[in-house]
Structure formats: C-alpha cells, structure tokens
C-alpha cells in the first residue's frame, strides 16, 4: 500500500484500530485477543491497528469490517445534511482514516466519493465560521465586557473558540453569538477541519493587518 511514512495523517491512520475477522486458524497469536487462548480460530473477530490489519488483509489472513464511523447510517446522514454530522464523534481523524480505508477496500471509488462529498458539503461552513471568529476576535480586543452566552442562550464566539482550539487562539468576542446549530457543528469538526478553521481565521487576520497597514 502506497503511503508516505512522514505524512502525519498516514501516521495517525496507521494507529487507528479496525474491526477484523480472521479467515483462518492462526497459531501462537492468541495474545492479540486479550484472552488465555494460545491460537486464533477462524471467524474470530478482533480489533487490530490499521498497519497490522492492512498487512494481514493483503495476505488474506483477515477480512476488514467497515468501522461504524463509515457505516450506511453515517453516509445517509451526510447525504441528507453534511453539516449536521458530528464527525469528531465518529473519529477525530475521520478523513485520514477514510482515505486509507478507501485505498485498501474501495474498488469503485465509492468511499472516496463519500469523503469528497462530505468535505465539499462542509468546507463552506468552515470558511464562513473562520471569518466570523476572526471578526469576533477583532471585536473582542476593543470590548470591555465578555459573556459566554446571550439572553437567548446562544453560545458566544469565546466559548466556541475554547471548544475548537483548546485555547483562546481562535478568537474571542463579546456579543458575537452563535446558534446552537453552529455550536454543534464547530464542536463536531474532526481534526483536519479544525486545522482549516484555524488557518482560515489566521488568513483573515493577516489580510486585515495588511489592508490596515496600507491605508
């Protein structure tokens, strides 16, 4: 399987555990079942790290079962409304794992199409919120008050920033509220989407600084 050893996404995907079923009896490998059995019997179901599952699958020792995070139910939800699915609850590296699985299991590009459709269906919202948080961050620097929610129960941009960055770097504001739907979306972004959000906000900030310096 072609992948880049130095690529962080590939490295992370290699450590993810996959549900597998053994196609044959395998002697002296019982320890991977966390049982006292010495051997593994055919049809035994275990979870293996991707790197080991891939090697065994290519040698027809195991069959990889599709993880729940890529189930028909998840695909149906993404088809209905990509932004409504909390990918982080499925897998914090959903795209990276999905791409590796598609290389291993996808004969007709179906799985890659699922990933592509999810990405294109969510990227506009990520960009929009990165700009919002950038504006909120600028607003907060000139504001003397700060709240976590408004009177209608909407989360403030400060609260969202803490959710998606584990720190204040994404921007804080007072009065820049977000709906519960947007709050759920931002909380549910998987890791590469959070990186895109940070990059979008940083890009917007740099552009504002550039324009301000040329006035």
Automatic annotation (TrEMBL):
<keyword id="KW-0235">DNA replication</keyword>
<feature type="domain" description="DNA replication complex GINS protein PSF3 N-terminal">
    <location>
        <begin position="6"/>
        <end position="57"/>
    </location>
</feature>
<keyword id="KW-0539">Nucleus</keyword>
<protein>
    <recommendedName>
        <fullName>DNA replication complex GINS protein PSF3</fullName>
    </recommendedName>
</protein>
<dbReference type="InterPro" id="IPR055221">
    <property type="entry name" value="PSF3_N"/>
</dbReference>
<dbReference type="InterPro" id="IPR036224">
    <property type="entry name" value="GINS_bundle-like_dom_sf"/>
</dbReference>
<dbReference type="Pfam" id="PF22466">
    <property type="entry name" value="PSF3_N"/>
</dbReference>
<dbReference type="InterPro" id="IPR038437">
    <property type="entry name" value="GINS_Psf3_sf"/>
</dbReference>
<comment type="function">
    <text>The GINS complex plays an essential role in the initiation of DNA replication.</text>
</comment>
<dbReference type="GO" id="GO:0006260">
    <property type="term" value="P:DNA replication"/>
</dbReference>
<dbReference type="GO" id="GO:0000811">
    <property type="term" value="C:GINS complex"/>
</dbReference>
<dbReference type="InterPro" id="IPR010492">
    <property type="entry name" value="GINS_Psf3"/>
</dbReference>
<comment type="subunit">
    <text>Component of the GINS complex.</text>
</comment>
<comment type="similarity">
    <text>Belongs to the GINS3/PSF3 family.</text>
</comment>
């Amino acid at each position: 399987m072609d992948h880049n050893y130095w690529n962080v996404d590939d490295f992370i995907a290699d450590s993810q555990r996959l549900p597998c079923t053994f196609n044959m009896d395998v002697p002296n490998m019982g320890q991977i079942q966390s049982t006292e059995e010495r051997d593994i019997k055919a049809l035994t179901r275990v979870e293996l790290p991707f790197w080991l599952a891939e090697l065994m699958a290519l040698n027809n020792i195991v069959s990889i079962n599709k993880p729940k995070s890529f189930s028909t139910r998840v695909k149906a939800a993404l088809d209905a409304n990509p932004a409504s699915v909390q990918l982080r609850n499925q897998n914090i590296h959903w795209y990276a794992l999905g791409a590796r699985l598609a290389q291993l299991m996808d004969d007709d590009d179906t799985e890659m199409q699922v990933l592509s459709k999810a990405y294109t269906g969510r990227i506009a919202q990520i960009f929009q919120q990165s700009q919002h948080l950038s504006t909120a961050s600028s607003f907060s620097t000139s504001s003397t008050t700060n709240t976590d929610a408004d009177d209608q129960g909407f989360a403030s941009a400060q609260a969202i920033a803490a959710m998606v960055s584990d720190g204040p770097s994404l921007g804080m504001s007072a009065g820049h509220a977000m709906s519960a739907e947007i709050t759920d979306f931002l909380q549910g972004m998987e890791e590469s989407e959070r990186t895109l959000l940070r990059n979008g906000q940083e890009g917007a900030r740099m552009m504002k600084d550039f324009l301000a310096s040329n006035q």
